[in-house]
Amino acid sequence: MAGSRPEISLCMIVRDEAECLPRCLESVQGVADEIVVVDTGSVDDTVEIARRSGARVEHFPWNGDFASARNRSLDLATGEWILVLDADEELHPDDRHGIRSLVRQTGAEGFLVRIVNRLDSAVPWAEETSVNVRLFRNRPEYRFTGILHEQIAENIVRARPGARLEPCALRILHYGYQQEVVARKEKRLRNLALAREAVTRAPEDAFLRFNLGVEYLRLERYEDALAELEAAWRLHARGALWASKLVKSLLVCLLRLGRHQDVLARAEASQAEFPDFTDLVFLRGVALFELKRHAEAVGVFHQCLAMGPAPCPPYSGVEPALGGCKTHLALGMVYEAMGRLPDAVRHYHQAAVLGGGWHEPLGRLAALLIPREDLAAVRGYLEPFFDLGQPSQRVALANLFFTHGRYDVALQYLGPPDPEDGGAGGAAALLRGRCLAKVGQYEEALAAFRSVPPESPLHREALVHTAFCCWCLDRPRAARAAVRKLGGRDEDYLAVARLFYSEAEEILSEGLRRFPESTLLQETLVALREEIADLERPARPASGDD
User: Fold this and answer.
1) Do residues 226 and 250 make contact, with C-beta atoms less than 8 angstroms apart?
2) 0.90 cut: is pTM over it?
3) Which terminus of the chain faces fewer neighbouring Cβ atoms within 10 Å, N or C?
């Protein structure tokens, strides 16, 4: 530390972040000499948690502008360097101890830091990595702009022409894009409103149009997304840090709209500017697969594996799995469509290995192997991917066999009823009941469904199956009682109806497999499927004459 001046100041803006703030602050222990927290209106324990960590806390009324709040935190910082984190982030534990040597041995004005966005708490490899300036010298002319996804890189270069922004190994883990977090905080709708307001203020700002396009894309409003992303592409400056993510977002949007030829054309046009961006090559492969140009898709996906994960920097929006397990899954799907089942099995297996027991390729493996291979061999093939000492893992494996009609094997993995299963949410009890109902053991199935605790998120599903079993046992009063417990909403009645229809369809389909010449079974199945289609069809609005 030079004199009494802090070397590194951590600057944060927060609001109602009591749940995740402790993790963030713990990650900078021994790294930040000063912590500055600007609170924009918390009503939980956020401020108290920050103060307990030794932070200087200042209240700043929220004005709908993230850059404004961010810059207030910079105004308060006294360190030589600024480190910027959000409460739903943390420094990667393997990187935190190298920051001081990094800032002491450089002539750079700032560093390009990798932001690792964790997308699914249950899947370690589900992440997208971008790059941003989060560590920079503390100078009064270095300030953020942008009311949403505020940026500082271009402002540093504008303030000091020739300023170096160097890549570094530092990683920040970001948890705010995990589905459960986004849903809980209603982040998408908030961001959409801010992005719209920003574009209204500055319609010629390429980055703002890009942000709005991304928000529309997340909300699956693909036509709106495409309009904004195309506008951003026309306006953006070549070499922008976010340009690679912009073109990737364009390809994703075009895919969602079914514009496969446009995907291929855009990917080819972008190749020269982004030559080793694996993600663009992968999306080209997806377009070819959906066009049923299978041989070409195989070549493109093998190219992805040869390239490996795209480098970050220079690229943003990088999904490392597109150079690994997700591409093996894609190859498995293409080979399966081509009828090359041994190749499909090989790539599904590799996807599961690289994905740490990823369930999607395992499900596809089960679909290929269970009907065709010796059952003992299939069990030996799948079991190594599961920790059978864990109840949740046994349920996951049992579900694979349940899905493909091997209820006897599923029951073996589930074992006898366990009084402790209710505490785990009743997943084993629910699946055990479904297996027993499939083989006609309705009394035993009822006991399993009734053991799912009322506080479990699976309880409503268990009530649907309870109603079905009671009806099969000729207990209509008990069946109606189970339906009433669901609450009497239209969707609850539909759930019960769907179960009855699906069971009937399965029975008829099995009958046709055994007696393929039966005209009566064929006609009944067609009529049933028409009934199911009517059930699933949304109600039409009443006309003005009614």
Assistant:
1) yes
2) no
3) C
CATH (residue range 8-177): 3.90.550.10
Beta bridge partners of 368: none
Buried b (16+ CB within 10 A) or exposed e, 409-427: bbbebbeeeeeebbeebbb
Contact 505, 525 (CB under 8 A): yes
**Looking at residue 311, what is its pLDDT?**
95
- Nearest by Cα to 287 from 231, 244, 219, 334: 334
Please identify which residue in the block is written with the tokens 């349920």: 395
For the chain, how big is the Rg over CA atoms in Å? 28
Q: Which of 77-86, 312-321, 469-478 has the lowest mean pLDDT?
A: 469-478
C-alpha 339 chain-centroid distance: 30
Res 538: pLDDT: 59
Sequence letter at residue 74: L
Q: How far, in Å, CA of 35 to CA of 27, rounded?
A: 12
Domain-wise residue ranges, the chain? 8-177
φ, ψ dihedrals at 457, nearest 5°: -65, -10
Q: What is the pLDDT of residue 488?
A: 63
d(CA 143, CA 150): 10
